[in-house]
Amino acid sequence: MSPGLPLLPLLLLGSLLTSPAAAQPDPHDPHTPRDAYNEPYSQGMSWVNGFRQGFNFQCPHGEALVAVRSYFSEAAGCDRLWTFECQPTPEGLGEPTDCWWDDISRAGLECKYFESVLDREWQFYCCRYKRRCPYACMKTSDVPEQYREEAEMVIPAYGFFIRGAQTTFSGVLRDRQWKYIMCRMTDFDCEFENL
């Protein structure tokens, strides 16, 4: 698990992949921590994973990832529950011209959980739209602000897209903080190669 991920020059579309690496603990097992299943924030949300499980999430075709939420539980093996929201891309953006799964992270998400290190390996699904250029880019502060806190990142306004992500892992606290790079996309074709 690398401490930082490269900035991605492409639009992150809503896809996330993870494979189950360990089964979720049985809530009827007397050795399972009770608070792993009864914590207030974890109730009532549509999580894409269980604690200590991999997952695969992808936004529907024509939509992009616009919100990421997670909840940390030390009692459930120093892991997070995750949920994501997608939104249709503006009509003027057109259809993606190239999409792929990145080894580290991009538009969709895939995640494997490794119990031996209490951490996840991430892959993201990215797409390029014609020759549109990113502009008005900004990087978020750490999400969550402190390790082991609830986390939420929502794009600031319609027309912004997640272009990339960086992550830092704390081996002591067994948790990650993320920074997301968000940009707008031009509504005209750019003259630049290799965007």
Give a verbal description of the structure:
- The strands form three sheets. Strands 1, 2, 5, 6 and 7 form a five-stranded mixed beta sheet that branches. This protein has a three-stranded antiparallel beta sheet with strand order 4-3-9, with no helix packed on it. Strands 8-11-10 form a three-stranded antiparallel beta sheet, with no helix packed on it.
- Strand 6 (109-114) and strand 7 (119-128) form a beta hairpin.
- The radius of gyration is 17 Å and the shape is elongated.
- The two termini are 27 Å apart.
- Helix content is 2%, strand content 43%.
- The chain contains one helix and eleven strands; from the N terminus they run E-H-E-E-E-E-E-E-E-E-E-E.
- By secondary structure, the protein is mainly beta.
- The relative contact order is 0.25.
Quick overview of this protein structure:
The chain has one helix spanning 35-38, and strands at residues 11-17, 55-58, 63-73, 79-88, 98-101, 109-114, 119-128, 134-139, 151-154, 160-170, 175-185. By secondary structure, the protein is mostly beta strands.
Order of helices and strands: EHEEEEEEEEEE
Sequence stretches where pLDDT stays below 50 over 5 or more residues:
1-40
Distance between the termini: 27 Å
Would you count the extended β strands for me? 11
| Approximate strand percentage | 35-45%
What structural class should be given to the helix and strand makeup?
Answer: mainly beta
Figure out the total of helices. 1
Helix content: under 10%
Which shape, going by the Cα principal axes?
A: elongated
- Kindly provide the radius of gyration, computed on alpha-carbon positions and rounded to a whole number of angstroms: 17 Å
Mean pLDDT: 76
Q: How would a textbook summarize the main sheet?
A: 5 strands, mixed
